[in-house]
Write a structure and sequence with these properties.
Strand content: over 45%
Structural class: mainly beta
Helix content: under 10%
Oligomer: single chain
Number of helices: 0
Largest sheet: 7 strands, mixed
Distance between the termini: 37 Å
């Protein structure tokens, strides 16, 4: 599966952005999908993940209640709605796909990665 993330940009603190990730291939619905981010000078970290059907989601503690991950299997799309953004949310956001029966939060579980989209939150 090939992934392409989009939707990043510059936003003020407290604002919102919606990231999108388009996936190629006919087996998209078999993949657990995740979003990760990498802040300047830091390691990449888990943000959110969603099960193959979309029925289960999981979030990192610092985005819980502010971010929402969703997917549309008919359109081969996964989304990350980000509200109440903070400067510490700044980073490159990556979508990733994992052939997994359970939601995965570790990078090594994800075999496919998009190119990343930059989110900058100004204070």
């Amino acid at each position: 599966v090939q992934l392409q993330a989009s939707g990043g940009g510059l936003v003020q603190a407290g604002g919102s952005l919606r990231l999108s990730c388009a996936a190629s291939g006919r087996t998209f619905s078999r993949y657990v999908m995740g979003w990760f981010r990498q802040a300047p000078g830091k390691d990449r970290e888990f943000v959110a993940a969603i099960s193959t059907s979309g029925g289960r989601t999981f979030y990192a503690n610092d985005v819980k209640g502010r971010f929402t991950i969703s997917r549309d299997n008919a359109k081969n799309m996964v989304y990350l709605q980000m509200n109440s953004l903070k400067p510490e949310d700044t980073g490159v956001y990556y979508c990733a796909a994992a052939l997994s029966v359970t939601i995965a939060t570790k990078e090594f579980a994800y075999g496919y990665w998009g190119q990343g989209t930059l989110v900058t939150v100004s204070s």
